[in-house]
C-alpha cells in the first residue's frame, strides 16, 4: 500500500491535450493521451490527497475520488487551473497545452471551394505554467506553493530542461525524453526530474504510476 502522506493536501493536475478550434468541426490538437496525468491523479488519491483533475480531451475513465473538470482549449484550461489553484497546495501541469491558436474561429464550417484555402493565422497562447511561476514570484494570488511542470525534449534534454525550469519559475520539471517508444500514448515513461536548487532525480523506464509516485515523493518533501 501507499503512504497517506498527501492526506489533507489539495492537488491540482492538468492532463491531456488542448484543442484549438479552427471552425465548429475542426481543431489543431496534439497526441497527448492523458495517461500520465491520470496516473498522477490516481496515485495522489491513493496517498490521501484531495484532487482536482483538469482534463483536456482525454478518453479515459474518471479516476475514482478525483473531481474532474473538463476543458477543451488552452484558454479554458487556464481559467479552470486558475480557479482550482485557489487554496491548493500544489499544481502539476501534465497537460500538453497548445502554444498557438488560430487568430479567428470561423462561426460556420469552412467550405471547400475551387479557390486555394485561406491560410490559418496563428497567435500565441498564454503560458499557464510560466504565469503561475510569475504570480508566485510577484505574490499575486492565486498561486500554489508548489509548482510542477512537464517538458518533452528530444535533444539536449538536461540543458534545455534546466533553462525551462528557470524560465518558467517552477519547483520541479519532469523532463521526458520523447521517441524510442516512450511517452505519448504508451504505458511506460522515463524521465529526469529537475529540481530547483537541487540535484536532478533520474527516473528509470517504468509504468507511468511509478513516475507519478516519484513526483509525489518530491512534492510531499517540498510541502513538509
Ligand atoms: O514550453 P513547453 O511547452 O515545453 O512547456 C511544457 C510545460 O508547460 C508543461 O507543464 C505544460 O503543461 C506547460 N504549458 C503551459 N501553457 C502553455 C504551454 C505549456 O502551461 N501554453
From TrEMBL:
Q: Which cofactor does it need?
A: Mg(2+); FMN
Where is the stretch described as Phosphopantothenate--cysteine ligase? Answer: 11-224
GO aspect biological process, one term: coenzyme A biosynthetic process
- EC number(s): the record gives 4.1.1.36, 6.3.2.5
Q: Which GO terms describe its cellular component?
A: phosphopantothenoylcysteine decarboxylase complex
Pathway assignment reads: Cofactor biosynthesis; coenzyme A biosynthesis; CoA from (R)-pantothenate: step 2/5; Cofactor biosynthesis; coenzyme A biosynthesis; CoA from (R)-pantothenate: step 3/5
Instruction: Quote the catalytic activity from the record.
Output: (R)-4'-phosphopantothenate + L-cysteine + CTP = N-[(R)-4-phosphopantothenoyl]-L-cysteine + CMP + diphosphate + H(+); N-[(R)-4-phosphopantothenoyl]-L-cysteine + H(+) = (R)-4'-phosphopantetheine + CO2
Q: Binding residues for CTP, per the UniProt record?
A: 99, 109, 126-129, 150, 164, 168
* UniProt entry keywords in alphabetical sequence: Decarboxylase, Flavoprotein, FMN, Ligase, Lyase, Magnesium, Metal-binding, Multifunctional enzyme
Task: Name the Gene Ontology molecular function terms of this record.
Answer: FMN binding; metal ion binding; phosphopantothenate--cysteine ligase activity; phosphopantothenoylcysteine decarboxylase activity
Ranges for domain DNA/pantothenate metabolism flavoprotein C-terminal: 6-220
Q: How is the cofactor bound?
A: Binds 1 FMN per subunit.
Q: Which family does it belong to?
A: In the N-terminal section; belongs to the HFCD (homo-oligomeric flavin containing Cys decarboxylase) superfamily.
Role, per record:
Catalyzes two sequential steps in the biosynthesis of coenzyme A. In the first step cysteine is conjugated to 4'-phosphopantothenate to form 4-phosphopantothenoylcysteine. In the second step the latter compound is decarboxylated to form 4'-phosphopantotheine. Catalyzes two steps in the biosynthesis of coenzyme A. In the first step cysteine is conjugated to 4'-phosphopantothenate to form 4-phosphopantothenoylcysteine, in the latter compound is decarboxylated to form 4'-phosphopantotheine.
Q: What is this protein called?
A: Coenzyme A biosynthesis bifunctional protein CoaBC
Name the source organism.
Answer: Streptosporangium album
Record lineage: Bacteria, Bacillati, Actinomycetota, Actinomycetes, Streptosporangiales
Gene designation = coaBC
